[in-house]
């Protein structure tokens, strides 16, 4: 009798578990997968469409490496002097974004790169030229309509393009040839200051960085203008102690305050420091405005819990994603950052981002803050080791997004959904006590599984691409240029499909 009772109880428990498992297998309703805001239909993602030009530059580099660089030093010096003279002439004019001078500036920056790199000469001068060019172009853009396609395209081609040219040279240069810090414009500021990696940072400064996770690469590249950065952090300097605090939003915990050491310890492939222009009318009127904005963000982060904003709605500040931490604070004091709002127009990318919880495709992307004429670039930290990973991540991401446009989907193993939902329930319990759970607050179990699927796919392609890149270097004697990495990433994706 007792044995029969145990069997019945066991059968009942098994039935309950089966029913619970089947209930937890029910997918989310389709309505949660759709976007609530779409970008204007007339917009489209930027494309260089210059593969033959990149190949020609690589051929020029190979020719110089094979045939020697006799007289290269004098040629580089003369060329850079001509470039500086041309840049100075631009500085004396007021030009629109369509001016022919900018196309010529782009040509000079790209075509001098192979000579500087192959002959290992004029590296410091080339770096100075690109930094001066960035400052000059941003000064010109102060008079442009930042909502226009012409302004965005010119800024992107010159700022993003010159960074790409510099980094191609950095990848081929001997160890130690480049400093980790490349300085920009030391914009004056009246706000409290502290030292950070040999740079004086001020309260109200903005740190733009690139994380090492595959999803960081997706954030950086998932834009009409694919960029180099995935995260925004806001600097607050305590006036009494002169110590820097970093305010930032993380998907796991929402808005938090970190020390400068904690911020730098978190894996970053690059970091750029931006500062509001001292001559902005709002700052001329109140030089302490940047500090007041930073103090507001600091007090908000330390006084209550602010969840992470997965939908990326930069107009609703009840939740904040990383860019909003800075933009909301400055908005309160009359400075509207992201003069040119970011758009995500590619249908495949929008479909993927919707699967990750994004609902707004006109937003504030970290990479696009660099192009805001209200801000100066004070400096940028990077080194060849982290650059190599950055480039491989970007190439893999670019090819995965090509697949998205062709219909590839982000999926997950259906049988794992019940377990993920149990883990989500546990995470929600931890959130109630102010702790982070395995699945971030605001992220569904389904989204967590899709995120893991994306990261797993990215990792497989990344590992295969790294092997192909090493083979390329052994065979040709130099690091693969970015356009070669993209081609090899396509091969890695095709290889994954065959396996």
What labels would you give this structure?
single chain; 499 residues; alpha+beta; endopeptidase fold (from Nostoc punctiforme); 4 domains; seven-stranded antiparallel sheet; 16 helices; 53% helix; globular
Summarize the structure.
The protein is α+β, with helices and mostly antiparallel strands and 499 residues long.
Count of individual beta strands: 11
The radius of gyration computed from the alpha-carbon positions, rounded to a whole number of angstroms, is 25 Å
Instruction: Give the helix level as a range of percent.
Output: 40-55%
Shape: globular
Count of distinct structural domains: 4
Largest sheet: 7 strands, antiparallel
CATH fold-level label of the largest domain:
endopeptidase fold (from Nostoc punctiforme)
CATH class of the largest domain: Alpha Beta
H/E order of the elements? HHHHHHEEEEHEEEHEHHHEHEEHHHH
- Beta-strand level of the residues, as a percent range? 5-15%
**Would you identify the CATH H-level superfamily of the largest domain?**
endopeptidase domain like (from Nostoc punctiforme)
* Number of alpha- plus pi-helical segments: 16
Low-confidence stretches: 16-23, 30-41
CATH architecture of the largest domain: Alpha-Beta Complex
Strand order of the largest sheet: 1-11-8-4-5-6-7
Give a description of the structure:
The protein is an alpha+beta fold and 499 residues long. It folds into four domains: 2-33; 51-178, no CATH class; 183-381, Alpha-Beta Complex (endopeptidase fold (from Nostoc punctiforme)); 397-498, no CATH class. Helix content is 53%, strand content 11%. It has a seven-stranded antiparallel sheet. A hairpin with a 3-residue loop joins strand 6 and strand 7 (254-259). The radius of gyration is 25 Å and the shape is globular.
